[in-house]
Amino acid sequence: MVSHPASGKAPSPASPPNSLSPSRAADFMQCPLLYRFRVIDRLPEKPTPAATRGTVVHAVLERLFDAPAAERSVRRARSLVVREWERLLAKRPELAELFTQDGRAAPGEGAADGTELAQWLARAEELVERWFSLEDPTRLEPAERELFVEARLESGLRLRGIIDRVDVAPTGEVRIVDYKTGKAPRPQYAAEALFQMKFYALVLWRLRGTIPRRLQLVYLGSADVLTYDPDENDLRGVERKLLALWEAIRQATETGDWRPRPGPLCGWCAHQALCPEFGGTPPPYPLMIQPRLPLEPDGGRGDGTGSGTGTGGEGGGHS
Ligand code: SF4
């Protein structure tokens, strides 16, 4: 059995997907083969400095609210960066590979001048500090932080994810907030960015019976805040889109037909070497392929969206 190059652990056995998170939904929309590699094959991906910094920054913004409101200062937040990095490193020692022991960059991770780790931490502190120009944590009292949510739609499809922050106004109105360490998208890509937030809004609506009043994306990379107030039509539209997506995933799972869809993000794909678009060969499909009926009647869709069929397996998708 292949072992995880970073953790040394054997990967968990392949199983059909049984739920959908915003990131995996985005994967499938970007490239079905990428979704397969991540969800079905569960191929390991090496951590990157940028993604790891995102994890640290999120942890800092969460932890800062442990302090009383008046003590949520820039200084305290900056000081949390190293603490959260060390805490993360203790949980995931493989992250040490991002930097050599003396703080230099690992090969291929930038200038090996002995200051790489310090620069990386300084950048994280900068992002944390920038947040204070966008929101004032001394005036916020989040109802929830890093909230795991999961809801089952009538069709059986399970939606799940983790919401960075939920604010509830004295009037009861709910605001969902998500932090991004990157830059805000250009206006023509804003809809894609909001899709994740509408996904969460749909889950909260299904769980609590009330549509969140506002969705708020906080871009620390460019100091932008993107907000959107969803309505019932929006969320019903997202639900329809997710059901169609899940049906496409179900069919691909059963047939093993996961098409690569090359695009500008291929440069970031950790699995290029296995991708036919780049001369690679995917590993053997680890699930049983179910032959298609020669002619499928209209009603062949069934609900088939997670409560049974090939998608009702054990716990799989995670955000
Ligand atoms: S390299 Fe591009 S086309 Fe190939 S699997 Fe990755 S995202 Fe898909």
Automatic annotation (TrEMBL):
Which protein are we looking at?
Putative RecB family exonuclease
Protein origin, superkingdom: Bacteria
**Residue span, PD-(D/E)XK endonuclease-like domain:** 19-276
Enumerate the residue ranges of region (Disordered).
1-23, 291-319
Q: Which GO terms describe its molecular function?
A: exonuclease activity; helicase activity
State the Pfam families in the record: PDDEXK_1
Asked if the record carries the keyword DNA damage, the reply is yes
- Keywords of this entry: ATP-binding, DNA damage, DNA repair, Exonuclease, Helicase, Hydrolase, Nuclease, Nucleotide-binding
Q: Gly residues: which segments have biased composition?
A: 302-319
A biological process (GO) of this protein is: DNA repair
Source organism per entry reads Streptomyces pini
The reply on keyword Transmembrane helix is: no
